[in-house]
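Quarterly update from the structural biology core.
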Amino acid sequence: MPHRLSLCLALVLATSSCEATRRAHPSADSQLKLSRVVLYRNGVAYFERSGVVDGDRLTLKVRKDQINDLLKSLTLIDKSSGKTVSVSIPLDPRAWQDAALAMLMPGRGQLAQVLDALRGTEIAVETAARRVRGRIVLVERTTRELQKRDAPDSVEDHKLTLLDGDTFQIVLLSEVQSLKLRDGDLIMHLDRHLDASAGEGMFQQVDVVAKFADGGAHDLAVSYVAQAPLWKPTYRLVLAEDGSGKALLQAWAVVSNVSGENWNDVSLSLTSGAPLAFRYDLHTPQDVPRPDLTQSAVDKHAEVAFGESTLGAQAMAPGAPPPAAPPAPSMPEAEAELADELPEEAAADKAEADDHRKRGSAAAPSRARKPQPKGAPTGVTLPALAAQQPTAATAKRVAGLTRFDIAQTVSLPDGSASMVQLLNQLVPGEQTFLYRPGGSGQGYELNPYRVVRFQNDTEFVLEPGPISIYAGGSFVGEGLSEAVASRDRATIPFAAEPSISVRSDVEASGAELKITKIVRGVVEVESFQRVKTTWRVEAKPQPQPQRVLVRQPRASGAFELISPPKDTEILPDAYFIPVLVPANAAGASLEVVEQTPSKLSLDIWHDRMPELLQQLLAAPDLSPQARAALEPIIELRQAIGRIDSELDGLSAQQAQLDQRANEERQNLWAIQKDPNAATLRKRLSQRLEQLTQQAAEVGRAIVERSSQRMERKIALEDRLRELELNPRTPRAP
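Predicted structure, tokenized:
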């Protein structure tokens, strides 16, 4: 099975398809041999060609859709002479500047935009009612009314204005049934453009000519960048069954060749990372708008000035003189480490295979194998895969990127794909369980994932891709990995685990205030909010402990974990909380507390300040000196609080008396002219006088209590100004 798997993985995966009626040209074609290809994951590839050319020029035939990438990156070296090489490119201004035809690019343009760009062109338009012929003047956006039963509605339309002789003809585009071009050259040009667009430029070529200073033989090296599909990584992770905490990590790359030419014995490299790539039009001539200053020259004129005369003959003054004007380390091979991990028989097989390779023999070792013991695992196991020929790729760090260089040359026909091995290395790995809120899918809302965790012990980034997981000699599931940086740990879910269920309870507590510092009248307070989450894991009893990782999202960015459990891992937006189910136990529970302290400054007159000061005074670690300085402040603050309560009551009483007195005044005013209401006026006058006296007494009480409050307020502020208190390090004057 291992040898069969090895042969299968080495096969070229040909992506066969029906032959098109027209075969696409290669990105760049010349008599120079393609010698090197570097594939990236950003939509481009780097190509190198080399060879000897006789004559004074080299012609590269470049597809039109690739010409701009080639012009951005073309490098040509004449190794035989070392002289500068000039490069010429023919331009087709009409084909590349026509704005109307640019509208016909796939996914772009509308009929109104194309017609507007063709202003001045003669066309014939036919509607249901008439046929109009003329030159396009303009295309205007408009709206037309639609009559509906409920209410009229409007839709967007366009008005096409044609000049027919000396008459403007106006047609709505929504009424046009057919449109005919009258310009034969434009029709031919449009046909050519559509032919090219049908293949996105793959059926037209541009000649790029490099001219040399002299004739003869020229040893050339040419390199350039062209569009290419990204290479795709795929991984195999085989878990050890001996409890060693090791796993075999294999990385493969799926490489596609759609360049339009066969790759024969080329040096292939694959680059991971995120280099920037963009499109930039260097082939199309571009006009730069400039200001027209013609009129400024026309308007320029000298102003007529009268001459002046002087008295007597004087010498003219002479005229004034004019003014002065690091080799990066290669990827460590895993052969030595793998050999240490292999059983004796597998190591012997590997040594024999190495000996055959050194002798150049293609035959497999013929030593008879010992029969496997009954019940021994077969299939894809860590020793079996590790016994394969180690990877023939080396890796280097180049400008922050990881480049995998394939040691042997590669031949890949056009329109096919191949798998190339990049890594074959032992890494730390384990199998465990991971619960995410919501479970592991529909029907598994309470169940965790079975996951594999491994550490990227290489020096390079592992690109995102699928990972096939093997354990116990066979395939057990697959997962999808994000990019894994060097020395980082990856957690890959590969199966749901119905034998374990996880539940949680969340309890949130309100804000809790605590004084942290008092400095010269400024009181700093911490406000705490807590969220307590209780995780309960239920599992079938097992002879070995079971460890479940719970992915708990952060309550918010301001919350922090208080007394995190052992081996808790901090993620950018969550935590990995380990819950350990003991051996032979049916479950376990764990409480996790998050807290959000926030500092704020409160005024001494805040409503909760007396309570907070009493809380601070009751702190057992407060020093006697700080307590002595704090007690009179608390007494003054409490006294002021009582006075404030009295003032509130007096103010309410005064307002009530004023309201009643005002009502009595209104009643007196209402009956002042009634001759029969003398008795009532007397009674109302007496009641108004009593209310006025009571209001005056309350006013005097308010003034008195306000004066007392002011005295205590001044005394309190004086004491606060002299106080410097930190409960953590109590100190007072």
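DSSP finds 13 helices and 34 strands in the chain.
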